[in-house]
């Protein structure tokens, strides 16, 4: 078993970051996620948003790993559960693979919280527990997978920034459109009065 952890600070408020996290896929930084299906989404009586999604991924497994685990297939599925608490301002996301579970399990946990000193920033804490079973060199393979997770985490942060930029551009476009539509009726009214 190998445990990988990381912490990152986004220079954006919690509301922005959690909105981006829910819309992270697809993105050009991590094309390995080829599909996202929402299986269930509901708000519980306390106001927390619960989401259960299925992610279809193309694992870029190194050829040595494929040969060691005896897998030619690279399409895998991951189940993801998230809980967004708007009162406490926390988002916890847990994911685990549901493919190849007899050989490998990757359990990941991400927590997004406002930065304790600066509410305009968000702290992301990540943890992944990697377990390779029933093959020789399992410790070596767990290390390789931890390195891949670390690399993918960096891509994931870039993807979050990309989504945030995209969301901000959409908001600005809507605001500009709203400003334009407000002017049009007033201009028409001024024309009619003359």
Roughly what percent helix? 25-40%
Count of all domains = 1
* Strand-residue proportion: 35-45%
Poorly predicted runs of 5 or more residues: 187-194
Q: Might you state the CATH topology name?
A: Alpha-D-Glucose-1,6-Bisphosphate, Chain A, domain 4
The global form is elongated
Number of discrete helical segments: 3
Identify the strand order in the major beta sheet: 1-7-6-5-4-3-2
- Classified by CATH, the class is Alpha Beta
SS elements, strand count: 7
Alpha carbon gap, first and last residue: 79 Å
Q: From N to C, what is the helix and strand string?
A: EHEEHEEEEH
| Biggest sheet architecture | 7 strands, antiparallel
Superfamily (CATH H level) name: START domain
CATH hierarchy: architecture: 2-Layer Sandwich
Average predicted confidence as pLDDT: 88
What class do helices, strands and sheet pairing give? Answer: alpha+beta
Using the CA coordinates, give the radius of gyration: 21 Å
How would you describe this structure in keywords?
3 helices; alpha+beta; seven-stranded antiparallel sheet; PRELI/MSF1_dom; 37% helix; 194 residues; Alpha-D-Glucose-1,6-Bisphosphate, Chain A, domain 4; single chain; Slowmo/Ups; PRELI domain containing protein 3B isoform X1
Can you describe what's shown?
This protein is an alpha+beta fold and 194 residues long. The protein has a single domain, classed as START domain (Alpha-D-Glucose-1,6-Bisphosphate, Chain A, domain 4), CATH 3.30.530.20. It contains three helices and seven strands, in the order E-H-E-E-H-E-E-E-E-H. Strands 1-7-6-5-4-3-2 form a seven-stranded antiparallel β-sheet. Strand 5 and strand 6 form a beta hairpin. Helix 1 crosses helix 3. Pfam families: PRELI (PF04707).
């Amino acid at each position: 078993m190998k445990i990988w952890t990381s912490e990152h600070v986004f220079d954006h408020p919690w509301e922005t970051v959690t909105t981006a996290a829910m819309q992270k896929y697809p993105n050009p930084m991590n094309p390995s996620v080829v599909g996202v299906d929402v299986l269930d989404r509901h708000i519980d009586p306390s106001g927390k948003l619960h989401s259960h999604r299925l992610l279809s991924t193309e694992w870029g497994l190194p050829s040595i790993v494929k040969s060691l685990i005896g897998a030619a297939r690279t399409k895998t599925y991951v189940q993801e559960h998230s809980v967004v608490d708007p009162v406490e301002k926390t988002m916890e996301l847990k994911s685990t693979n549901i493919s190849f579970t007899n050989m490998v399990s990757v359990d990941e946990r991400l927590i997004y919280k406002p930065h304790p000193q600066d509410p305009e920033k968000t702290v992301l804490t990540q943890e992944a527990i990697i377990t390779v079973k029933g093959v020789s060199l399992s410790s070596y393979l767990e290390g390789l997978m931890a390195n891949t997770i670390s690399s993918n985490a960096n891509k994931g942060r870039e993807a979050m920034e990309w989504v945030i930029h995209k969301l901000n551009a959409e908001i600005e476009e809507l605001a500009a459109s709203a400003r334009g539509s407000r002017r049009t009726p007033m201009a028409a009214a001024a024309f009619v009065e003359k």
